[in-house]
């Protein structure tokens, strides 16, 4: 079974938010909603030893996704390549999935009255392209691929970084598949 996911190299992320803009433009995300949000972690420490990094947050493509489990209509589902998607025709706007997501990365579209989220630009994958956030990142810090395939870009980036520098958002039994690379020379990973 494959697990398509994203890896973000935080050593390279400059916090420009090009990924947010590209996502909104490609997917028609309405004002007030974001499928991809860049957070600032820090600054922490005391001068002259101060650390800070930028943390893009998007769907973590969990292997055991709570959002899928709680959906009463089956609108939230997992595709064959492990990406969690929403069938907007089935979504009743109950927002159970939003409450179940431990990362707060789902949004409610007030215009269409359905829940939305990052799809890893499934529509672009269908034509052989990378997600808009990956294509438009000036720092080239985003990678998408099958994390279960050792020859994929994401697996190779993770291997090259070394296990001490590869991080995940807190796992609360949902097994997030997205990975973040942050070497100690850049900053200390914060939970």
UniProtKB/TrEMBL annotation:
<keyword id="KW-0004">4Fe-4S</keyword>
<keyword id="KW-0411">Iron-sulfur</keyword>
<feature type="domain" description="4Fe-4S ferredoxin-type">
    <location>
        <begin position="4"/>
        <end position="34"/>
    </location>
</feature>
<keyword id="KW-0479">Metal-binding</keyword>
<dbReference type="Pfam" id="PF12797">
    <property type="entry name" value="Fer4_2"/>
</dbReference>
<dbReference type="InterPro" id="IPR017900">
    <property type="entry name" value="4Fe4S_Fe_S_CS"/>
</dbReference>
<protein>
    <submittedName>
        <fullName>Sulfite dehydrogenase subunit B</fullName>
    </submittedName>
</protein>
<keyword id="KW-0408">Iron</keyword>
<dbReference type="InterPro" id="IPR050954">
    <property type="entry name" value="ET_IronSulfur_Cluster-Binding"/>
</dbReference>
<dbReference type="InterPro" id="IPR017896">
    <property type="entry name" value="4Fe4S_Fe-S-bd"/>
</dbReference>
<feature type="domain" description="4Fe-4S ferredoxin-type">
    <location>
        <begin position="50"/>
        <end position="81"/>
    </location>
</feature>
<feature type="domain" description="4Fe-4S ferredoxin-type">
    <location>
        <begin position="82"/>
        <end position="111"/>
    </location>
</feature>
<dbReference type="Pfam" id="PF13247">
    <property type="entry name" value="Fer4_11"/>
</dbReference>
